[in-house]
Amino acid sequence: MDKERFAQSSIKSIFNRNFNVVTLVNFIVMIAYYQIFVTSAFYAQEHFDVSLSTAGSTAGIMVIGCLIGRFFTGNLLSRCGCRSVLIAGTLLYLAIALSSFISGSLLLLFIQRFVTGFGVGVIGTATGTIMAYCVPYAVQGLGVSIFSLSTALALALGPFLGISITHFLGYEILKTDIIALSTFALICAFLLKNPPEIKTASKSFLKLSNFIDVRVLKFAVVVFLMPLSYGCISAYISNLAADRGIEGAASLFFLFAAGTTIATRPISGRLFDKYGENLIIYPCIILSAIAMLLIAYTHSSFILLLAGVINGIGFGNFQSAGQAIALRLVKKYRFPQATSTFFIAFDFGIGVGPYLFGFIAVSYGFTGMFLALSAITFITAFLYYLLHGKNHPLKRPLLRRSISR
């Protein structure tokens, strides 16, 4: 009975004012981001008559901007404070959304997309860090899982809304939609009350440890490798489906994946807190590898959607569990740098995956590419054991560790 009461009080303590605010801000910003991302290449082709590769680069440069934004934000949070950085990030996001009505050249579009990505990097790192301070340590895994549902839900709705709005209403309405969302995000950011004060470890602005945390770097190798497959899925799933005559399933793949992620993250978060990270990470890696195998050989819509479900459970829960691990590796005042390090590795893996494995698809087809991704994902399980898992057995005494802190 006491355990049940403790669990209920801990769950209630997650949903405090600041947690609710940053979760809402993250959801709003990410749903706008994914609307821009999925329509960016087509917009560039339609308005500037450029090649497919050039048009695709307008989306790719958003990822680069996001990486750079994440790199600098860890230090800025320590120096300027959480609330100031979050408000500045949402202001920048709104400003660049307003500038979207000025579209005179391809160069300007690239600049706009880069700054959009930069703003997302700043906001995402800020919200993730504030969330980490809001959640009690004993339920950190569950807290991260619930918070990250905002991104999973945005990933499911954003592309659908972006494509639907541009198809039925046009790009001008999409731009207005993005401005409205950005304005709402800024208003919500001002609702943040008494944000945590973060101790600055070093007065030197250029010191590398102010931007990333070396204690997270070993685990970041795993964090980089896991999203390689997701990056390739995002880039090539439509082409693969068209090549195999199952085009209709491609549009549903991400909805199925996001749905299972949303359904299972609260469960995985509880298991993470109760039994430790290994119970979650190993199955996530194996399931993701199995999903790549299914995609490699599938010629049916059912199998492709089944792969989406499996990958939603595997890769979808790896993201939230991985972020919780990164936070556990550092002291509390290093949460900004740990969050920044995790997402730099994560986003970099998504961004470079299509470039690293695209040549395999050219030479050996999509089957060869996804087989290679499956093999690398299986190897990632072994690397995880060497770099982290072997030192963190199951049933870790979470409550005693939280008290000792």
Automatic annotation (TrEMBL):
Gene3D superfamilies: MFS general substrate transporter like domains. Keywords: Membrane, Transmembrane, Transmembrane helix. Residues 18-392 form the Major facilitator superfamily (MFS) profile domain. It comes from Succinatimonas hippei (strain DSM 22608 / JCM 16073 / KCTC 15190 / YIT 12066). Pfam families: MFS_1 (PF07690). GO terms for molecular function: transmembrane transporter activity. This is Transporter, major facilitator family protein. PROSITE patterns: MFS (PS50850). The lineage of its organism: Bacteria, Pseudomonadati, Pseudomonadota, Gammaproteobacteria, Aeromonadales. InterPro entries: MFS, MFS_dom, MFS_Exporter, MFS_trans_sf. PANTHER family: QUINOLENE RESISTANCE PROTEIN NORA. The chain crosses the membrane at residues 21-44, 50-73, 85-111, 117-139, 146-166, 178-195, 216-237, 249-267, 279-297, 303-330, 342-362, 368-387.
